[in-house]
From TrEMBL:
Belongs to the DEAD box helicase family. DDX46/PRP5 subfamily. The chain holds residues 284 to 739 of 999 of the full protein. Residues 259-420 form the Helicase C-terminal domain. Residues 50-78 form the DEAD-box RNA helicase Q domain. It is found in: Nucleus speckle; Nucleus, Cajal body. A motif (Q motif) lies at residues 50-78. It comes from Astyanax mexicanus. Component of the 17S U2 SnRNP complex of the spliceosome, a large ribonucleoprotein complex that removes introns from transcribed pre-mRNAs. The 17S U2 SnRNP complex (1) directly participates in early spliceosome assembly and (2) mediates recognition of the intron branch site during pre-mRNA splicing by promoting the selection of the pre-mRNA branch-site adenosine, the nucleophile for the first step of splicing. Within the 17S U2 SnRNP complex, DDX46 plays essential roles during assembly of pre-spliceosome and proofreading of the branch site. Residues 81-248 form the Helicase ATP-binding domain. The lineage of its organism: Eukaryota, Metazoa, Chordata, Craniata, Vertebrata. This is Probable ATP-dependent RNA helicase DDX46.
Amino acid sequence: HQKIQYESYRKNFYVEVPELARMTPEEVNEYRLELEGITVKGKGCPKPIKTWVQCGTSMKVLNALKKHNYEKPTPIQSQAIPAIMSGRDLIGIAKTGSGKTIAFLLPMFRHILDQRPLEEGEGPIAVIMTPTRELALQITKECKKFSKPLGLRVVCVYGGTGISEQNVFLTLCLCFVLGCLGRVTNLRRVTYVVVDEADRMFDMGFEPQVMRIMDNVRPDRQTVMFSATFPRAMEALARRILNKPVEVQVGGRSVVCSDVEQHVIVIEEDKKFLKLLEILGHYQEKGSVIIFVDKQEHADGLLKDLMKASYPCMSLHGGIDQYDRDSIINDFKNGACRLMVATSVAARGLDVKQLILVVNYNCPNHYEDYVHRAGRTGRAGNKGFAYTFITDEQARYAGDIIKALELSGSAVPSELEQLWATFKEQQKAEGKIIKSSSGFSGKGFKFDETEHALAN
Ligand code: ADP
Ligand code: MG
């Protein structure tokens, strides 16, 4: 980098409006509490905004927000947007479905539009790193709602699509899946970097790829990182790639949104299928449904059984090739098929508006996975339902599910409490110490290491 003469660029665009300037520190604290309990770490973070106009974005963006019924900023958007607009590096933690994408997109457009146009062979100015193809496509779609009216060129890069390097040049914003960016991509003009779903990147072992790209981008870039959770292992990476970041966290830790009605059913393995049909009978007419299983072969097995029972459905897991995965996700999003059997990782970050029901056919084996799965529904203020099957053999997972229910203010069924109590007694009798997998300390992003092991 020392050999390269980088042009100077501007990253502070934020002007606080008088209405916000007048707010006292007490009022700001109170407002942050109202916004689902925003906590901010790091000096000099701007106050949270209340309306879109206050973030100082263009008329075209405001119109696009209106057109897509984004009435006002969500809590993470209220706080992260002014912070990023003022040029700060940022770590944003908020549960799935809370609108993190727009929180990094709006400042990105302002940033890009301030710079001189790209010349032949130059570009991109902003890059967005994502762990999966589905997420990359989703972000690109959200991005196009604004980039089209703004006349900006956005390109999504993922493996096996035949995107040529030529296409990547002259692109202002590049959204890509880690590992899929060509070596020759010119990163010299990059001044804005987004690392999205950082916790997933860890689960998937992408840390070295993140570092490799960061090493190739000018050190005085602006970097923002978003995640649903902040596992301890992420702190080291955050420290390496961010410069005096502001940390914005919404809610104490990721919890299932209160719009999701959660049910947990203690059940024997061989009774699950009938119970599933009963539940589907209730909800299928009302919207789309995802059924989570823990393994690929279980997904295919359940798919067959459902087909036999005259439920048209699809399955989504890591064993399905990319082309088919795209079309499956498309069919599911546009409602052509409304029932899907999936593994957790395959469905990570999937945002389907009309999703009414999530069924955990196999019990999730740790807290975060439960929250992520249940978080597929109840998005953007819609009501959703989550059913979880747990067998006696899975009693060791009951503790995390109880915690998830409690933290989101849901009632804990007595059978589940019983299951957990019995399990604890047994373990005690055998002289084992029980450690819940989630060591939430209550005041920071301190999680237990065991959470990072993500099954399938
Ligand atoms: P996250 O990345 O936090 O999981 P997303 O950015 O995918 O969440 O947003 C979830 C859903 O909420 C998307 O369908 C998005 O279009 C919608 N959304 C985002 N911001 C707003 C807003 N301010 N008002 C209403 N809906 C919004
Ligand atoms: Mg997201």
